[in-house]
Amino acid sequence: MKKRLYKSNDRKVCGVCGGIADYLDIDPTVIRLLWVIFTLAGGSGIIAYIVAAIIMDDGPDYIDVN
Questions:
Q1: What share of the chain is helix, strand, coil (3-state, %, to 5)?
Q2: CB neighbours of 49 closer than 8 A, spacing ≥ 6?
Q3: What is the per-residue pLDDT across 16-51, written as a single tens digit (0 to 9) for each?
Q4: Are strands 57-58 and 6-7 parallel, antiparallel or unpaired?
Q5: 7, 27, 38, 66: which sits with the fewest CB atoms below 10 Å from its CB?
């Protein structure tokens, strides 16, 4: 079975960090902390997050409650 990268249902903002954590099988908090460090170190993390939020699909079991 091939793994796919999706946005997570465990969302804080858009689900990008949670989706990456699910794909890598690690704690989402670790990915979120790394993302903050990269953003503060160079600022490119914000652009990368926005691009990832636009490109990544929602998870197959995602239900929008809005």
A1: 55, 5, 40
A2: 13, 14, 16, 35, 39
A3: 888 888 888 898 889 888 888 888 887 777 888 888
A4: parallel
A5: 66
